[in-house]
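Please fill in the sequence for the structure shown.

STRUCTURE ENCODING:
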C-alpha cells in the first residue's frame, strides 16, 4: 500500500475546515459537531473480523467506510489512531476447526490472512494497530476483576463452591443499560430485541456468527451476559486459560472493551462497526466499560448493510458474495468504488448495475486524468496529491464531506469539476489556462484520494500490472494450446487444419512465427 497516502502525523496541523465537521452519533440519533477529546488527535476503534471463514463483500463495506472516514480526518489535519481488532477465538471458530480437522488457532490465522489480503487488495490503509483477542487475556482478566470490584458482575460457583469459570455482567445493577439502543433496563427484551440477541455476533455480518447461544448456567437474569466462559467438554486444552474466576475463555463483548482501553485509553473519540453490532455487542461493551469506571467512546458510528434485492447480504441466506469471487470478475478499483460511493449510513444495494456504474466512473475519471496530464505534459507528484489539505479543496466538496461524510455530495462536486475542466480543454485543447488546469488536476486527484480512488496511486498501478500479467499468462496458455494443436496437425499432414488454426489466431490479433525451434507468437496489434 502506498504509504504516501498517509500524511506524516508529526507534521499534521488541523485545517480551518475541521471546525465544520459534523458526524452522526448512534446513541444520540443526531448529527452534531465533532470535537476530539484531545485537540489535533482522533482515536478510533473499529470492530474487526471474527476470522472463522472467508470474507465477503458485506464484511468489507464497513472496513472501507471507516477507511474513507479516516482519510477525511487525515485530510482535515488530524493525527488519527485507528485500532481494528481480530476476534481469533469463539464458538464458531472452535466448532468449524474441529469439523475440518484443524487446530482452532490454525483456522483463525488462515482466515485472518484472507481478510488482510482482501483489505490490502481493496486499498485499505493499514490500521495503526490490529490486536488479536488472544493476545490480551491479562487485560481482560483485569477488566473483569474491576467490574466485579465495582459490584456489577458475579462469578458463578461450581457444585463444590469453587469458581466455575463463568462470570456474568449483572445488568440489573447497571441502571444505564440500554443507553446506546434506548432500551428500558427494567423490562424484558422486546421480541425484536430478543431476536437480535439470538442473531447478532462478532462478525460484521452477523448471520454467519451468532453470539454465544449455548446454555449459560448460573445466570441471575436472562439479560446478563458472559464476561468469562467456562470451557465446554469439546474445547481443546489450548482454548482455555487459568484465571481467578476459574478455567475458561473470554466472552466476546469483553474483548473489545479490553483492547480499546489498552490502545486508546479510558476514553476515546469514535467507536465504529456494522449496524448489526449495536445490540447486543456495542450495548454490552458500553455497559461493562462504563461500569468499570471508564468514559469509553464519546461517539458511536455504524455502517448500514449491503443488500441484494432488498435482503441483507449473508452466507446463511445464500446471497453472500466472497471477495475473491467478486475480484475474479471485476478490478479492485471498481469494486471499491461501488462500495464507497454510498454514504456509510445508507443501505447499499449490490448489483450488476452498481458495478457497471463503477466501471463507467473509472473510465470517466481515468480519461480525464490521462487527458489533462497529456496536455500539461506531466502529472502532479504523488506527494502533492497526498499532502493537499482540506483547506485547498473545493468548498462544495469540503462541505459535503463535513456533512457526516456525505460521499454522494462529494462525488457530485468531483464530477462537476471534471465537467468544467473537460469543457475548458474542449474549448481550447492547445492552450488552456495551464495553471488553472494543473491545480484542477491536483484537486481532482486529491479528492479521489479521499475515497482511496486516485487512479495513479502506486497501489492501483501495481494492481493493474498484476491484472495484465495474469491476463497475459492466461492468453499464453490458450494460444500455446492452439499452437500445439497446429503442430500436431502439421505432423499429421492436415495442413488445412493447421492453416485454419493460424487464420483464427491472426483474426484474433495473434501473430504466429514459425522458426526452426518451433512456433512463437506475439500480439499483432
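FILLED IN BY: designer on duty
SEQUENCE:
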Amino acid at each position: 500500500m502506498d504509504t504516501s497516502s498517509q500524511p506524516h502525523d508529526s507534521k499534521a496541523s488541523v485545517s480551518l475546515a475541521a471546525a465544520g465537521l459534523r458526524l452522526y452519533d448512534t446513541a444520540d440519533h443526531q448529527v452534531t459537531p465533532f470535537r476530539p477529546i484531545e485537540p489535533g488527535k482522533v482515536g478510533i476503534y473499529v470492530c474487526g473480523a471474527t476470522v472463522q471463514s472467508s470474507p465477503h463483500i458485506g464484511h468489507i463495506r464497513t472496513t472501507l467506510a471507516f477507511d474513507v472516514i479516516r482519510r477525511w480526518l487525515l485530510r482535515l489535519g488530524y493525527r488519527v489512531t485507528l485500532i481494528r481488532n481480530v476476534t481469533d477465538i469463539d464458538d464458531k471458530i472452535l466448532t468449524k476447526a474441529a469439523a475440518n480437522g484443524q487446530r482452532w488457532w490454525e483456522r483463525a490465522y488462515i482466515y485472518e490472512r484472507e481478510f488482510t489480503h482482501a483489505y490490502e487488495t481493496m486499498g485499505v490503509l493499514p490500521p495503526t494497530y490490529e490486536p488479536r483477542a488472544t493476545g490480551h487475556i491479562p487485560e481482560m482478566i483485569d477488566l473483569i476483576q474491576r467490574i466485579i470490584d465495582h459490584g456489577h458482575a458475579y462469578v458463578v460457583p461450581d457444585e463444590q463452591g469453587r469458581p466455575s469459570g463463568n462470570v456474568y455482567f449483572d445488568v440489573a445493577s447497571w441502571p444505564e443499560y440500554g443507553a446506546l439502543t434506548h432500551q428500558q433496563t427494567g423490562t424484558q427484551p422486546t421480541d425484536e430485541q430478543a431476536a437480535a440477541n439470538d442473531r447478532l455476533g462478532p462478525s460484521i455480518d452477523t448471520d454467519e456468527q451468532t453470539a454465544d447461544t449455548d446454555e449459560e448456567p448460573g445466570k441471575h437474569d436472562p439479560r446478563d451476559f458472559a464476561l468469562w466462559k467456562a470451557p465446554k467438554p469439546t474445547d481443546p486444552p489450548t482454548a482455555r486459560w487459568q484465571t481467578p474466576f476459574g478455567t475458561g475463555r473470554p466472552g466476546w463483548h469483553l474483548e473489545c472493551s479490553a483492547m480499546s482501553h489498552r490502545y486508546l485509553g479510558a476514553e476515546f473519540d469514535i467507536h465504529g462497526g456494522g449496524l448489526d453490532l449495536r445490540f447486543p455487542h456495542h450495548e454490552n461493551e458500553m455497559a461493562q466499560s462504563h461500569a468499570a469506571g471508564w468514559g469509553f467512546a464519546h461517539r458511536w458510528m455504524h455502517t448500514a448493510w449491503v443488500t441484494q434485492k432488498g435482503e441483507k447480504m449473508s452466507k446463511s441466506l445464500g446471497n453472500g458474495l466472497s471477495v475473491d469471487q467478486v475480484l475474479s470478475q471485476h478490478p479492485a478499483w471498481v469494486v471499491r468504488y461501488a462500495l464507497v460511493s454510498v454514504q456509510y449510513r445508507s443501505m447499499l444495494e449490490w448489483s450488476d448495475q452498481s458495478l457497471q456504474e463503477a466501471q463507467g466512473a473509472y473510465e470517466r475519471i481515468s480519461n480525464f486524468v490521462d487527458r489533462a496530464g497529456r496536455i500539461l505534459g506531466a502529472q502532479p507528484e504523488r506527494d502533492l496529491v497526498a499532502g493537499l489539505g482540506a483547506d485547498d479543496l473545493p468548498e462544495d466538496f469540503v462541505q459535503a464531506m463535513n456533512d457526516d461524510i456525505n460521499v454522494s455530495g462529494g462525488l457530485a462536486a468531483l464530477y462537476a469539476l471534471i465537467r468544467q475542466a473537460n469543457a475548458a480543454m474542449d474549448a481550447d485543447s492547445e492552450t488552456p489556462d495551464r495553471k488553472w488546469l494543473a491545480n484542477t488536476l491536483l484537486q481532482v486527484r486529491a479528492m479521489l484520494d479521499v475515497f482511496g480512488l486516485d487512479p495513479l496511486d502506486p497501489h492501483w498501478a501495481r494492481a493493474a500490472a498484476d491484472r495484465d500479467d495474469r491476463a497475459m499468462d492466461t492468453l499464453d496458455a490458450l494460444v500455446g494450446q492452439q499452437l500445439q494443436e497446429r503442430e500436431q496437425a502439421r505432423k499429421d499432414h492436415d495442413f488445412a487444419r493447421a492453416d485454419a488454426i493460424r487464420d483464427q489466431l491472426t483474426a484474433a490479433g495473434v501473430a504466429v512465427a514459425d522458426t526452426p525451434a518451433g512456433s512463437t507468437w506475439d500480439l499483432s496489434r
